Amino acid sequence: MLVLSRKLGQRFQVGQDVRVTIVKIDRNSVRIGIEAPSDVIVYREEIVPQEEVEPSVNASTV
User: Helix (H, G, I), strand (E, B), or coil: what is residue 46?
Assistant: First the structure.
């Protein structure tokens, strides 16, 4: 895991097409803005569809 320290208004880039901006900082929360192409789906972790989280049943182990 990469851990970054950013200040209000600072940004970082993920790959070629995704930009994350620190929009607001409160005592117990940070608000971020995500700019991404319309074909990139962004989910909060608590609502990620289960088929994307669980490994495939048919996956073979090596």
Answer: helix
